[in-house]
Each structure stands twice: as structure tokens, then as C-alpha cells.
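Checklist before submission:
- one chain only
- standard amino acids only
- sequence pasted in full

Submission:
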Amino acid sequence: MPSQNRSLFLIVLFASTLFSSALLMFVLQPLFGKLLLPLLGGTPAVWNSCMVFYQSVLFLGYLYAHLLGTRLNSKVQITVHLVVIALSFLALPVGLPENLLPPTETNPTFWIFSTLALAIGLPFFILSTTAPLIQKWFAHVGHHDSHDPYFLYAASNTGSLVSLLSYPFLIEPKWGLIAQQSDWSMGYVVLCVLIAGCGAMLWKNQKHTPPAPLQRGESKSSLSSPLLKGEAAIAAGGCALDSSIPKLSWKTKVYWGALAFVPSSLLLGLTNFISTDIASVPLLWIIPLTVYLLSFVLVFSRWNSKSHVWFVRLQPIFLIPFVAYAFINPADLPYWMYLVFHVIAFFFAIMVCHGELAEQRPHSAHLTTYYLIMSFAGMLGGMFNTFVAPFVFNGIYEYPLMIVAALLLRPSLKKLSLPEIGMQLIDPLLLLAIGVGVYFSVDNLIGYFDGIAISLILLTIAVYFLRRRVVAYAGLIGVIIMSAMVVHHSESHTLMQERTFFGVMAVRESVLTDEKGQPETYHELFHGTTKHGAQRLIPTESKTPLTYYSRPSPMGQLFKTFDAQNENWNIGVVGLGAGALTCYAKPSQTWTLYEIDPLVVDIAKNPAYFTYLSQCAPNAVSEIGDARLSLQNKPDGTFDLLMMDAFSSDAVPTHLLTREAIELYFKKLKPNGILAFHITNRHLLLKKVVSIHAEQMKLAALIQEFKPQTDAPLIVATDWVVLAKNPETLKPLQTSQIGSWQKMPLYFDMPAWTDDFTNIVSIWK
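Returned file contents:
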């Protein structure tokens, strides 16, 4: 056989191209997620919708690479691809089209798709073609390692990891969005030069390297290695597949698809889970995606065949605390523990699936088919979470469902016959029957809650010993998780639960002990696990604002302090919740309520759930859509008081806290108007952001970190900041004896937030 090229330059060139492509791809994803956030209220669904777009374009890129690599010879491939690259330059520099307005009454997912397609469709398509196409080209250049180009996939995913970890800790803190867009565009041009260099190496090889002839004494049958057969087939740069290479069966393709579908769905399911309770920012969205990409780096490394066995063995052990914990209210444990349990379960699930996928990788002649199936299944997984699950489930149930599916895909499944699978289903079906029987036979399920909880923990431990019976094990875990969720649902007395683009909203009935020591029912509104308001139902208390808005709280103090002069105030509230703030309304006042989620408005107006609006402010105007976009249409100098209570679960969306946003608010306030910020947060030091704005914009600012001094029910600790242009406006609050308003502390360790620059890491508590 002819001597093979052992040049290190070729490996460096091709690996650098793949690394650079992945680096650019995974900077572009959080960058454009952040650009879209202000238009859609900061919901994590923005990221998930973007992910589905990226997966869809990735599939199209892989399909393009597959067709190019199997239908055309190498020189035509290079020519066609360079033409497509030239067309992609029309989208540079990357950025959002001007004057974009998302829909306010319908699901904006398709709007996100069309916007991304217009803004970055062509460049992202080129990035999507790079991994399979460059590896395919490397398989043709006649290098010593051309027979197994899959090691380059690790270089690609390493670039992805570096990119994702760099974004929140290096890129976001040091570069504004405009600089990120321009620098990315320049990086894209450099990548295209590298791709052209890879094409030149392939062209040179095809021009000077003749087809590999058979050596003396060597017959066709002596090419026994599949890898050598593949090299013989592609040595001349042709696209036909050698007949001696085994064909792919449909069973193999479906198995690959399942192994790629489940981790993709798990990725988006976990993203929804963990971004509900902190902040809807790329920082937290990056955690699941980083773990996801890390799995590819590990499984496509040289030591996967050894490590895969250990991940399969260890998965059931690490799954025990996750499954045992599933029935507990997440608010009952520290968030870090909640996060660790879910990330570990996710990591082992995808390591087993992706490890098995890597073990099943085919001959390099099937490389583009392999990647095409992976990308198609990944796209379907994302589409399932984005388009199917929200209409089928009223909660994020696709996430535990895919955990069970991942357990079903453990390697031993391949060894089972249909009768054996059927026999293993007996155990979970029997447990399910027992659970259904208990549910319908016990009148007071809550009275047995502790016993049921302990039983589920013990059962989880017992099921571990069935881990080798893969179908029985997965089925029993599924029944345990389902039982735990039913018990938790019963305990919470959920009256309604619905899922929209903006999250899962639920109304629950709970019991408190009133001032006389008697039990009393009340209603609570939840977004995920975060309470967004509560109302007592007895007539004497139904108009009493509670939780963050109680009469002893900072907002109660504000309305009491200005009681004599606020008869005709025009008041705006950004963020509706249950509508408790409206019970400070007077008949002569005008109230405008801004809410991005139409479901929240429906819940607040439904007297079966809450009556704050109907009793206290029946004439209040509700405007649906993002507050900044809605406020832009208001005449300047409209409001006397503007209250910012817009929560995305437990965090204010960052675009409502930028300098430009505060300038807009004061533009819409009267000269002596007051801007109030609700900054209660478990994880973010939001007062730091507001303080820097107040100092730089020369605004008067007071803060009260309120701690209730009474045992009255449903009065909670809460933090509020009030701002005004004139210090005299806030003087009544500062001198009143009904609250403890203080001057804002000063901070000098970070730049002011703008529409171009925000950085969550700098305000983490």
C-alpha cells in the first residue's frame, strides 16, 4: 500500500477548524438568547425555543454534509461549500433585525424561529455542517489516522465546552453585546479561511494521490479489516460505498436515534427545571448544556470503552437519592442540593446513552449517516419538549419520563427477547396496581403521607437490586416517581395547574391558623415552586393584601404615608401576580396592570381563585406583553407611581434593570413621580444594580429590607427600593415613623447594567 501521511499539521488544521467552529457556535447561542430575552420577558422558554432552532438547523447542516459527502466527489464538494460560505457573508455582521415586535396573544415560538432564521440562519447553517463535513474530508486526505476520524469529534465538543464556560465568566463580564456581535463576525471570517484551508488539503490530496493499488500477493479478500476496506473505497475520492462494508440495519438506526433523542429531551427538561427558581439568564441555562457536551467529549475519547462500563454500573447508585427525593417539595431542601441531585441524575443518564452511542459508532464510510441520525433524533427530542409536551402535559412531566426512558436504554436491553421483556414488565405493573389501589381506597391520603414517603424511599433502595433486569428496573423507577408526584400533588391541594410558554402556573388551597387559633383555608398562586401571591377567603379579610404586599410591608407604608395626596394618582404595576397590590386602590385613582403571561391575567380575574381584582380594582386596565415594550407606547409623564414587580419565578428579568429601562420608567413618570422596585430574591443581590444606577443617574433612593414584627398570618419578609428625581419626593417616607427606610448602600465594584451589558455573576449572593 502507498505510504500514509503522518503530518501533524493536518491534524492541527482539521482539529483547529472543528474547535473554532464549535467555539463560535456555542458563543452565538447564549449571545442570541440574551438578545431575544428583553423582547419576551426573560422566560427560560426563550432558551429552549432557541435550542430547538439550533437543533433543527444542525440537522439541516448534517443532512447537507451527508448529501454532499455521499453524492458528489471531493472537488465538487469543496466548490459547492465555498459558494454557500460566500452566501453566508450576507448575514454579517450578525444582529437582530430592527423594529421587532413579538406576538402578545399567541405562543411566540414560531416568531423566535423566523427571527433567528433571518438573523443568523446562514452562518449557523455553515457552523452546523462543519463537524461531519470536515471529519469526512479528513477521512479522504490520506493521513495515518484518516481511517478513524471520530477522535476529531472530541476536539469539536471541547471547543463547545470552552465556549460555554467562557461566556458567563469571561465574555459576558468583559464585552458588551455590540462588541460580542462584531468580534463574533470577525471570528466567523477566520473560521471560513480555515475551512477553505481544509478544502485545499483535500483538493491537493485528490490531485496528487492515486487510488491505492493492491500490493503483490494481496487479494481483495485480504482487506479483512473494515477500516482498510473503507480506506480502499474512498482512496480515489469517490462517494460510492464499498460493497464489502456491512450495511446499516434499520434496527441499528432506530437504536442510534433513541440514544440521541432521550438525552436531547432530558437537556431541555432539566433546563426548565433548574432555571425556574433562580434567574432566566444564560448563566444557568449553560449548566445542563455544558454537562451535555462534556458527555460527548468523554464518550468519544480513547478511554470510553473502559469508562462506559463503570458509568453503567454507577448510574443506579447515584440515582437512589434522586428518586427518593422526587416526592419532596423542592423548597424543603437547600437549592444547591436540589440542583446537585438533578444534575447528577442527568449526567449519568446521558453518559450511559451517549456512551452506548459511541460504542455503536460505525465504519467511517457511514460517518455522515451516523451524525445525520444523531442530529435528527436530537432535533426530535427538542421538538418533543417544545411543541408536544406543553400541549400534552400541564407540568414538566417529560423530564422524569425521559429519565425512565434513559434507564430503558441501558446496554442489557439489547440482549432481551420479547418474551423476556414481557416477563420483566410484571413487577412494575404489579406495583402500579398496588399504588392505584392505595390511592382510591384511602380517604385521607395526606394523613398517611409520612408512611407513604418512607415506603417510597425504602422501595427505591430495594429496586436498586433489580438493576440488572433493565425493563423491570426502569418500570419500577417510573412507578415510584409517578407515585411520588401523585402524593405531592395530593398534599398541595392543587385547584388548577396549566402550562404556557412562560412556565407552569398553579393555584393551590392551603390552611393557616388565624388570629383566634382556628384553621382557615386560603389560596396561593405559584409559578413553578415560587409563591406569587396569596389571599384569605373569609369576607372580612379577602381585601387584605398579603405576602410581599401586606399593610405592614414597605408598599403598605408607602400608600399610608401618601394617603392624603394620592387620591388622583395614576398608578402602573409591572407584574400582576394574584393582584394583591390593587387592594391599595382608591376609586378616583387610575390603575394600569402590565403582565406578559395571559394565563396570569385569567387567573387573577377568576373569582374562583382570587377576588383581589374584582373587589378592589374592577376598572383596572390590563395590558399583556413585555412591560418595556408596552410602556414605550404610553405618553410621557403619565404615572405618579410605577411599581416594578415583574418576576420570572424568583428573579427580576435583567432587561428591566438596565440604565435604559430606568430612563424609560422616569420618562413615563411625572416630575415628582416615584419608581418602586421589588427586589426580594434568594440568590441575587439586586440592590447592587439599583444602587449603582441611582448613584450614576443622581437619583434619590431609599431601601427597606423588611422583616415582619408580627405573628399575623401570610406576612413575609420583603425588600423594596424607591427612587425619585427629587429627594423631597421621598422625604415623607424617610421621616415617617411607620417604617425603617434607609439610604442605599454604595457599590463601586462593577459597571452599571445597560442593554448592552449585564453580568449575573457579579451580583450572586
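Reviewer check: The chain has three domains: 8-209, 250-414, 546-763.
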